[in-house]
Amino acid sequence: MYLIIPPKYSVSYAVGLIKSKSSSWLKKKNKKIPQGSFCCRGYFVSTVGVNEFAIKTYLRDQDKKRVDKLKLGFW
């Protein structure tokens, strides 16, 4: 996931918000998910020393590789 977090928000706040909103959304979509914690505790965050174009290119290429692997698995 590639995120740009404004300086006024901490990384932990942004991750907590993502985990909270995605958990709520999933529970609304699937009533079989039990109440309580849905996400694991903790997270991993890292920064990279490359520019935005390089990151987006890498992510786009990873998606293509994943699709190619899935196609191979079905044949």
UniProtKB/TrEMBL annotation:
Pfam families: Y1_Tnp. One of its GO terms (molecular function) is transposase activity. Residues 4-62 form the Transposase IS200-like domain. Gene3D superfamilies: Transposase IS200-like. SUPFAM superfamilies: Transposase IS200-like (SSF143422). One of its GO terms (biological process) is DNA transposition. This is Transposase IS200-like domain-containing protein. It comes from Candidatus Berkelbacteria bacterium CG23_combo_of_CG06-09_8_20_14_all_41_73.
